[in-house]
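# step 3/5: fold
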Amino acid sequence: MRPSRPAYRAASSRVAGDFSGATFVNPDRRRIRQPDSLRQLGFTVTETNELPPTPDLLPHHVIVVAVTASDTLPMLGTHLRAKPHFGRRALIALVPADTGEQTRRDAVASGFDAAMPMSADGRVVAAALLRALRPRPEHRCVLRPTTGNAA
């Protein structure tokens, strides 16, 4: 005889504390929709207006940075990757729409997993995050089930 409900609940409660966490750094505190979209897709998002100290970054699998001055992208990517214990966390930059393709490539070469325009849809950002997390099984990223109908 196979217990269906209790075994499922036990399995889901083991995973309950291991949801994907994202730190969303928005230094200008401008209203952007990506944090809310990521929450709707199942990410646990912590919003901040400045880069938190390293111990506060460690519980999160993903760091998303909304950048206003795209000329600082390479320095920022290198700085974050050099932080102690930063490891292989996913690092995404949201840049102004007028940022050139060469600047975005430089950002990726200096440590960001992706650099995309600030106008990018939340699903596009989530796809980039999941693409960055897929080869990193040490994060054991699990998304919460979403509520509502799929689009």
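# step 4/5: annotate
Helices lie at 5-15, 34-40, 54-57, 73-81, 101-109, 122-133.
# step 5/5: archive (pending)
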